[in-house]
Specification:
Blueprint: H1 3-6, H2 49-55, E1 59-64, H3 79-85, E2 108-113, H4 121-137, E3 141-146, H5 152-163, E4 168-173, H6 193-200, E5 208-213, H7 220-228, E6 232-235, H8 236-242, H9 244-255, E7 261-267, H10 289-302, E8 305-311, H11 322-344
Helix pairs in contact: 3-11, 4-5, 5-6, 8-9, 9-10, 10-11
Amino acid sequence: MADEDRRRRGTNDENPPSGGDPYTEYADFDLPAYLGLSSFQKLPWLTDGAALAERHPDVAIIGAPFDDAVSHRPGARFGPRAIRTASCHAGSINSLQLAIQPFEWLDVVDAGDAPVVPANLERGHEVIHRKVEAVLAAGALPIVLGGDHSITFPSASAVAEAVAPKRLGIVHFDAHPDAAASTWGVLRSHGTPMRRLIESGAVAGRNFVQVGLRGYWPPPETLEWMRRHELRSHFMTEIEERGAEAVVADAIAEALDGPELVYLSVDIDVLDPGMAPGTGTPEPGGMLTRELLRAVRQVAGAVDLAGMDIVEVAPSYDVAEVTAMAAHRCVLETISALAARRRDAGESQRPTKVD
């Protein structure tokens, strides 16, 4: 029986199979997180474009296991797998923050990974673009698990092309602006995707809004380019002085100053490395995990979200999965906020399906 047909409403550990037999088989979705298929939250694994189009899910998780564009510590190619498995929960979950069971409101599937191969940057970006296109063609909102931050260029480009003629704004959480002209001459590194998006016309500079910048990079000439192209930047000093919620509210308004839709990009290094050590370019002095999770809920609850990525999780540098869990939770908070928007708009829950 298909995963979706075997799903029952209610949290898995409080709703055993009916019939009173303790040895009755559980559906994979209802088994503990450490058993069975390693899809995101043990959700249905649906990689074929035609099957996605037939099902027409609300949200599809995509893996972008790519780190050929990093400038410092490699390892983010292992990020999608680490994020998928960094959960203590399986089955139907209940958000205490938003008082909602998101999978009862949204049909969410795992669309698998883009077919990346190592040492071929151009091909990697192209297959990520195509994978996001396939999810968008099925009518689903793509949430991309990186991978290094260069994957935002193909991912957000695919979203911008799909939503046209509507315009796209981007809210970008990061320690670094990633708007360099090049990295040692490489135009598509993880330090350049935001410049490539603006130069390509996928998003206007004035609707590209960055939150959490700090540290000792980039140099003045990059900051001057950002000013000339009207990027809106909110540094950690502003968050320290005004608080994250006020800064994020401004970022939302700036991203929507003209555009109708928003793409959300979260580099896990926006967090202080004391809370997220598993990343390639850690930068001390960042956001708290609770601040970031609240910010993600704030964005997803306030805008028409067109796509999202969470990038730069490098599990080989992680400790007790805390970085991967923070990234995993960013995705869950986004999905829960989307479900809450649907509930608050007066829409109905998805039909209950039983064994």
